[in-house]
Write a structure and sequence with these properties.
The chain has 13 helices and 23 strands. About 30% of the residues lie in helices and about 30% in strands. It binds glycyl-adenosine-5'-phosphate (GAP).
């Protein structure tokens, strides 16, 4: 199936309660989004899968949750205050502002179509500024973090010491980041507030090339393991002029979005740039001491850095399918079970108390283990379609026969095959399918 249009996914996301425009009752705040009941579940699932793969299933990576607000010196040392900028031009005809490196034609305004009306580019710093305390002075200036990574570097020594870690090891973190993007857009792809999933892997400088390749392979496989179609994924090395100020080499994991290939995740070789900078600026020696080799050095760092919100969006696009079944069209999100917001829907065939009662019993049993929805409205056909559209892998229907045979019908989202399963064996049946 060709990639669905961006509007198709955005409309589904809004209609079904994955993502809402922020401040919508006031006309909406551009590029800001709220995650609804389904979106919050799916986003949590994306983050959980990342955490499981990067932390829980490994013995060489630990977690961290550092503050969004850090001392201003952190961003001076990291280079963000000076060079975390994008080149911006302004159209003198319509006053539109654009990121120069993202323009299709850097002499023609995409809004009013005029040619030769751009100002000279100027560098625009992407960090959001605010003030700590009641007075808005330069001394009280703080930034909202533009990446979660720096909190890992500033905690490198505390994490290493308190957890008695030996190289190579990684520190992972998931959290909000903020960038005052000049041209946010494409729904939740580029926003000013977003969530990142980043891991800094510290190693001996001689081993960094090997680990760089290792993490590219691991991260690419992660998307495939969660069902992303291989034909929609690729790895693209950065050209030298694209590299961030800290990077000796970066590749992007790219996804084929409705508008073309674009970045899903960056994997960078940050060398010893950050630890050295923080050592110099803070006066703390952040070198690692290898007792066996009697060697003291700055570790090198390989960083897989993904966007949680962007990744969720890509999984939504990838899972979207339109199918014709018995002359009837259905939209189905073929999400990996682990990513689906609800794992099971419980559907009593009628609203009569004699069916609602066993349905509620089934619901409360299954809820102990999974996110489950009880849906009693509309015809059973419409309820199946709705569950297909939100990607629920299994629907459990309770009908009047249930009262006699103590069994229910379980419908599979993808095959639409139905099995009759005894109430006693239902949890085990679903457990085998889902876990
Ligand atoms: N610490 C390295 C770093 O932040 P990055 O490539 O700028 O690298 C990593 O960001 C990931 O964060 C991106 O690949 C993307 O998935 C996500 N990301 C970056 N800016 C974003 C934005 N404005 N909106 C949504 N996600 C964004």
């Amino acid at each position: 199936m060709p990639a669905p249009a961006l509007d198709t996914i955005a409309n589904l996301a809004k209609k079904r309660g994955f993502v809402f425009q922020a401040s919508e009752i006031y006309g909406g705040l551009r590029s800001s989004y709220d995650y609804g009941p389904l979106g919050v579940e799916m986003l949590k699932n994306v983050k959980n899968e990342w955490w499981k793969a990067m932390v829980q299933h490994r013995s060489d990576v630990v977690g961290l949750d550092s503050a969004i607000l850090q001392a201003r010196q952190v961003w001076q040392a990291s280079g963000h205050e000076e060079v975390f900028t994008d080149p911006m031009v302004e159209c003198t005809n319509c006053n539109g502002r654009f990121r120069l490196d993202k323009l299709a034609d850097n002499n023609k305004c995409p809004t009013c179509g005029k040619i030769g009306t751009f100002t000279d580019p100027r560098n625009f710093n992407l960090m959001f500024r605010t003030h700590m305390g009641p007075i808005d002075t330069e001394e009280n200036l703080v930034y909202l973090r533009p990446e979660t990574a720096q909190g890992i570097f500033t905690n490198f020594e505390s994490v290493r010491r308190t957890n008695r870690l030996k190289l190579p090891f990684g520190v992972a973190q998931i959290g909000k980041s903020f960038r005052n993007e000049i041209t946010p857009g494409q729904f939740v792809f580029r926003t000013r507030e977003f969530e990142q999933m980043e891991m800094e892997f510290f190693c001996h400088p001689d081993e960094s090339a090997e680990w760089f390749q290792y993490w590219q392979d691991q991260r690419f496989q992660w998307y495939l393991d969660l069902g992303m179609q291989q034909g929609n994924l690729r790895i693209r090395p950065h050209d030298t002029d694209e590299l961030s100020h800290y990077s000796a080499g970066t590749v992007d994991v790219e996804y084929r979005f409705p508008w073309g290939w674009d970045e899903l995740e960056g994997i960078a070789n940050r060398t010893d740039f950050d630890l050295k900078q923080h050592s110099e600026h803070s006066g703390e020696d952040l070198r690692y001491f290898d007792q066996e080799a009697n060697e003291r050095y700055f570790p090198h760092v390989i960083e897989p850095a993904a966007g949680a919100t962007r990744t969720m969006f890509a999984f939504l696009i990838d899972a979207y399918h339109e199918e014709v079944v018995d002359d009837d069209e259905r939209v189905v999100l073929k999400l990996h079970h682990n990513l689906a917001p609800y794992k099971v829907a419980v559907l009593p065939l009628s609203k009569k108390a004699e069916l609602i009662e066993p349905a509620e019993k089934v619901l409360s049993t299954l809820q102990r283990r999974w996110m489950v929805e009880l849906d009693v409205t509309q015809s059973i056909g419409k309820r199946y379609r709705r569950q297909d559209e939100i990607g629920t892998p299994y629907c459990v229907t309770i009908d009047f026969d249930t009262l006699d045979d103590q069994a229910v019908t379980v419908r599979d989202r993808d095959t639409m095959k139905q099995d009759r399963v005894s109430l006693d064996g239902l949890e085990r049946y679903l457990f085998e399918k889902l876990d």
